[in-house]
Amino acid sequence: MAEKKRIVMTPKQMAEAVLIPLDHQVNRNSKDSVFCDLFSDPEYLLLLYQALHPEDELTGTVDITLVTLENIMLRSQYNDLGFIVGNRLLILIEEQTILTINILIRLLMYLGETYRRYISNNDLDVYGIKKIELPKPELYVICPREKENLPEEISLSKEFFGIEDPKEAFVDVRVKVIHDSKQGDIINQYIIFCRVFDEQVKLYGRTEKAVKETIRICKDRDVLKDYLAKEEVSTIMFGYLDKEKLVEISQRKMREEAHDEGCAEGRTEGQKSMARILYNSGVSLETIALSAGVSVDIVKQWLSSPDPEPVAG
């Protein structure tokens, strides 16, 4: 029997196949999300800080310095935010699906890189005799889509090394988990927005109607009303839906190619092909690994291997 020729689709061909505009296929930076777009605005960032520290009534927008890192999460879908207020360094990451303990490692890496840049930008001498001054870290993870059974705090030493007593830990990272907030504050409004969005996607699928209904409902409920009046918000939300759709299509394509090839080698090559398409479209390594049913390390190996030559049908 003649060997079946396999067609390897380029990202452009994949985009055309699922009718997704190519301008949504580029590697988006962290601002291309409602979370980061919302809180990159000084007024909303101040509201976020006030929700976390209601006791501070003196801080204004001019007192907040945004230090969000670009590309530290390498094409990750996780939304991150960092800012300094006085002697505080606040870092927040949004978990878009469910809370995973690996968020502790990501936050540790994020904190380390933020301090490295802070030290460099302020010409601090870590090898000198004089103790350098650093802002006190506060780490948060926001879980807008989970409502119950979440801890108030998670700890690196406890979760990864089984250390219950903080005094016994040589190194620890403690992260506050937020899944709700005071009625009407900016965190509460953002969480409501996310849950309304999920509800509309369940009703109408990943469609324009779901986006428009989310905006309409939230405006009617006075949730992020002024922010959602901006025209670019719809574009950001459409971009999110496009990425979700691409993941769905790629998962189906992986299954089809594996079935058509009927062998382990062909199945792996099909997964590699889809992994490259997703990665070039800005999908996180974690999501690719979940779609393919393999580890993140395996996905990294696939992406570092040479691309196969496209074969005509």
Describe this structure in words.
The protein is built from twelve helices and six strands. Helix 9 (232-261) packs antiparallel against helix 10 (264-280). The relative contact order is 0.13. It has a domain at 27-244. Helix content is 48%, strand content 10%. The radius of gyration is 22 Å and the shape is globular. Strands 1-2-3-4-6-5 form a six-stranded mixed beta sheet, sandwiched between helices.
Offer a few descriptive terms:
alpha/beta; six-stranded mixed beta sheet; 12 helices; 313 residues; disordered N terminus; 48% helix
The profile of the biggest β sheet is: 6 strands, mixed
Let me know the average pLDDT. 78
Strand content: 5-15%
Percent of residues in helices comes to: 40-55%
Order of helices and strands: HHHEEEHEEHEHHHHHHH
Number of extended strands: 6
Cα-to-Cα separation, first versus last residue: 17 Å
Detail the poorly predicted runs: 1-32, 72-77
C-alpha-based Rg, rounded: 22 Å
Gross geometry: globular
Largest beta sheet: what is the strand line-up? 1-2-3-4-6-5
Structural class comes to alpha/beta
Helical stretch tally: 12
Which helices and strands, and how do they pair?
Blueprint: H1 11-17, H2 34-39, H3 42-52, E1 64-66, E2 79-85, E3 88-94, H4 103-121, E4 136-142, E5 153-155, H5 156-161, E6 174-178, H6 186-204, H7 208-220, H8 225-228, H9 232-261, H10 264-280, H11 285-292, H12 296-304
Parallel strand pairs: 3-4, 4-6
Antiparallel strand pairs: 1-2, 2-3, 5-6
